[in-house]
Amino acid sequence: MDAVTFGEAMAMFVAQESGPLHRARTFVQATAGAETNVATGLARLGHRSGWVGHLGDDPLGLFVEEELRSCGIDLTRVDFDDSAPTGFQLKSRADGGDPEVVYFRRGSAGSRLAWSEPMGTYVSSARHLHLTGIPLAISETARDFAFQAVAAARAGGASVSFDPNLRPSLWASEQEMVAVVNEVAALADWVLPGVEEGRVLTGHGDPARIAEHYLASGVTRVVVKNGCEGAVAFGPDGTVRQPAFEVDVMDTVGAGDGFAAGLISAHLDGLEIGSALERAAAVGALATTSAGDKDGLPGRERLDRFLATGSVAA
């Protein structure tokens, strides 16, 4: 595999009418999951991507499995659980802003993700491992899986990227969240926080100070994302800035996952950091041009056309 990721994938029901969720009457079924969004983005860009996780042996789990497989993601290490349900979420119609999202995931099959020897073989065979802070929060076994996966990737010579993707509501306390997320971040090659996440995790709101915190712990590169202000990378090449691309935003969910997919794709293709940031910003921008979390993620042809002409046409 070129890249492997893991976590919880859920079914998602997206409201088709504008307004608060409790007034919506029509929903469209889709999939949700930060890690599966990244795997989808990589697959669409022509990379061999795999996702590891647990799904309920139920209609929602079968739907998620079929959707991910249709995206070209390798699901060799996906297990079905007949004693726990697939989690799901309700999402409001975004209409260009941040949607309302309500989760139904407590006790889900996804939270039962647990490490095993075959998982280690699978992870260590990949060129790159991507993880987020979400599995660290959903269960003790999933948290252990994260630490074991990083160790296996390191043993196999893979590079490791980490997006904090903070979900405070999943943690017992902010203190625990900060401690555990930063412990994992220190094990990664790259850390990809949003500027507000960096403020929570390091106590600093300045991207340079956020980067200093992680570089001092042994991280090779830190890329701080700041929405419409763009992103800035800190590392062995110094400081490299990338402005955001201007697009008509339909839904902001998935932008960070698209950014991560673009950055990993560029790394796998051997691009230098300036070109890598440009690809990351472009994929992240295109991800916001569709209502679904992953619908806007581009293939190579669309990405190249966007970078050449600014056209967002599919």
Automatic annotation (TrEMBL):
Q: Which UniProt keywords apply?
A: ATP-binding, Kinase, Nucleotide-binding, Transferase
**Classification via SUPFAM superfamilies:** Ribokinase-like
Boundaries of each Carbohydrate kinase PfkB domain copy?
3-298
Q: Which GO terms describe its molecular function?
A: ATP binding; kinase activity
What protein family does this chain belong to?
Belongs to the carbohydrate kinase PfkB family.
What PANTHER family has UniProt attached to this entry? HEXOKINASE FAMILY MEMBER (PTHR43085), PSEUDOURIDINE KINASE-RELATED (PTHR43085:SF1)
Protein name (database record): Sugar kinase
Lineage, highest ranks first? Bacteria, Bacillati, Actinomycetota, Actinomycetes, Propionibacteriales
